[in-house]
Specification:
Shape: elongated
Radius of gyration: 23 Å
Order of helices and strands: HHHHHHHHHHEEHH
Number of strands: 2
Strand content: under 5%
Oligomer: single chain
Number of domains: 2
Number of helices: 12
Structural class: mainly alpha
Strand order of the largest sheet: 1-2
């Protein structure tokens, strides 16, 4: 009890800024612009700054009422919307050509690889994996992928403990916790409910994208994962230009098809220690067929990272 009481002030302090914004007075557009002008000159009070932020975030989320659970995930140096859109198409990340951008691109590549290795084609893949398939994909694909062998680099990129290592002895719960530490800043998590493992979207991220689409905002989406409304045709583009664009797209698709599928996924030859699986899986029954699929042409789901 004493330990819990000692942690309470820390939890309250963490959400103090969010609470101040939610409780701030609502501004009309003219008031917002007036405070914006003074804010640039450093002539605003704390209350005015909170009012300004409340109006800013309501515009950003395209809502009349802010959601505290969603807002706090955007307040502390991260932007889950930009992160998620980077997984959809890396062109959505508009960063400077510096170390921070290179680090972000490296994260996106690793997460895209990890999702596919675990059995998901994209961040919006709704398939459900049984526990055996999820565990097998982790052991046979993630652990065997050279991209995940440099644990020091992984820990540095995703702010994990310096000595954190993944291995075949991890339980399903440990595997899920590890993957979610990587995925949650990108508005994703893996849930294991009712003997199925699925991707779950966080921060109402797709609904936010839909609201921004309705305001005329659109995003890069090479795989058409978001099913965004089609843009109106450019009235200044003539038929010849349109044909050239179509021809270019057709040539790219043909090149991707000619490349052929990647090497199939591997299964470990040794017998796995199934005692480490979570309770609820009857290992005396016939082994289910793991949903381990051969890799397809990667260009459909993994955008070109060569800027």
């Amino acid at each position: 009890m004493a330990e819990a009481d000692a942690q309470t002030p820390k939890a309250e302090k963490k959400n103090l800024r969010v609470s101040s914004i939610l409780e701030a007075k609502d501004l009309d557009p003219d008031e917002y612009e007036e405070i914006t002008t003074r804010k640039k000159m450093g002539k605003t009070t704390t209350d005015e700054n909170n009012q300004w932020e409340k109006h800013f975030w309501k515009r950003f989320f395209v809502v009349k009422q802010l959601d505290e659970k969603v807002l706090k995930n955007f307040m502390y140096g991260t932007n889950p919307l930009n992160n998620f859109l980077s997984l959809i198409d890396i062109r959505n990340f508009d960063g400077d050509d510096n170390l921070k951008t290179a680090k972000h691109e490296e994260k996106v590549k690793l997460i895209t690889k990890m999702l596919y290795d675990l059995g998901f084609d994209s961040p919006l893949d709704s398939r459900a994996l049984d526990p055996w398939s999820f565990y097998t994909n982790f052991v046979c694909n993630v652990l065997e992928d050279p991209a995940f062998r440099n644990y020091r680099r992984l820990n540095e990129l995703f702010d994990m403990r310096k000595d954190k290592r993944i291995n075949e002895k991890m339980s399903l719960t440990q595997i899920t916790n590890w993957t979610n530490q990587i995925l949650e800043p990108f508005s994703l998590k893996i849930t294991g409910k009712e003997e199925t493992y699925k991707l779950e979207l966080l921060n109402d991220i797709v609904e936010l994208i839909r609201r921004k689409n309705a305001r005329g905002k659109s995003y890069h989406d090479a795989g058409n994962l978001l099913s965004q409304p089609l843009k109106r045709e450019d009235p200044f583009q003539d038929d010849a230009a349109g044909a050239a664009v179509a021809a270019g797209a057709g040539a790219a698709a043909a090149a991707a098809a000619a490349a052929g599928p990647d090497k199939k996924r591997r299964r470990v030859a040794t017998q796995l220690d199934t005692s480490l699986l979570d309770i609820g899986v009857n290992m005396d029954e016939d082994e289910p067929s793991p949903q381990v699929r051969p890799k397809r042409v990667s260009s459909k789901f993994i955008p070109d990272y060569d800027w």
